[in-house]
Amino acid sequence: MFQLIGNPASPFVRKVRVLVHEAGLEGEIEEVTVTTSPIAPAGEVTSAHALRKIPALIRPEGCTLYDSRVITRFLDAHSGAGLYPQSHLWETLTLEATGDGIMEAAVLMVYEGRFRPEDKQDHGWLDAQWGKVENALDALTARWMSHLAGPLDAGVIAIGCALGYLDFRHPAREWRKGRDGLDDWYAVFSERPAMQATRPV
Ligand SMILES: N[C@@H](CCC(=O)N[C@@H](CS)C(=O)NCC(=O)O)C(=O)O
């Protein structure tokens, strides 16, 4: 049995959980839900992850794994699900990095709002982070729609979780505006049972 240290609100954790569902590994993962933050890291996180982040995957044998990209790749290899197809490996990894980058910028924006007093928040910096998100969304629209419409892989999962996180934490930024194709794609993708089972709360 593997132990997944995480929290359902984290988009990186969700990416792992979606892959777990898609790969049929639910029976092999015990989810350990923690409340953690950069300011107050949970004890389980400090001992499992050198950088005190989630997710981390504790294995019965071998070292504890992080970060999410290492965990998804390991679980894919473990299950043989083929979500890092050799024929499209570099595209899949680049798309996953794009999804992770969107999540990273969006999480940093949440932290700025949560951990800094209102009068110390840097709105120029917040807008710059959102600028990264928008640039990535435009790159997806311009270059990645046919990949997104193709067979499921870890990159596609990462984009689905990144868009889900934008809805969850930044609805007022209206990422869908002017991006009908991506909106239509996500409307279908978010209906997958793996996405429905991992909706952030
Ligand atoms: N690159 C990491 C990012 C993980 C990450 O930033 N997780 C957030 C939660 S969404 C976290 O644990 N933050 C605590 C911190 O930054 O100290 C991954 O893909 O696993």
Q: How many DSSP helices?
A: 8
Structural class: mainly alpha
Share of helical residues: 55-70%
N-to-C CA distance? 25 Å
How would you spell out the order of helices and strands? Answer: EHEHEHHHHHH
Q: So what's the oligomer here?
A: single chain
- Percent of residues in beta strands: 5-15%
Radius of gyration: 17 Å
Mean pLDDT: 97
Strand order of the biggest β-sheet: 2-1-3
What is the top-level CATH class of the largest domain? Answer: Mainly Alpha
Overall shape: globular
Task: Describe this entry's structure for a reader.
The structure is a single chain. The chain is built from eight helices and three strands, in the order βαβαβαααααα. With 201 residues, the chain is mostly helical. It folds into two domains: 78 residues, Glutaredoxin, CATH 3.40.30.10; 107 residues, Glutathione S-transferase Yfyf (Class Pi), Chain A, domain 2 (Up-down Bundle). Strands 2-1-3 form a three-stranded mixed beta sheet. α1 crosses α6 and α4 runs antiparallel to α5. The chain is globular, with a radius of gyration of 17 Å. The model has no long low-confidence stretch (mean pLDDT 97). Bound molecules: glutathione.
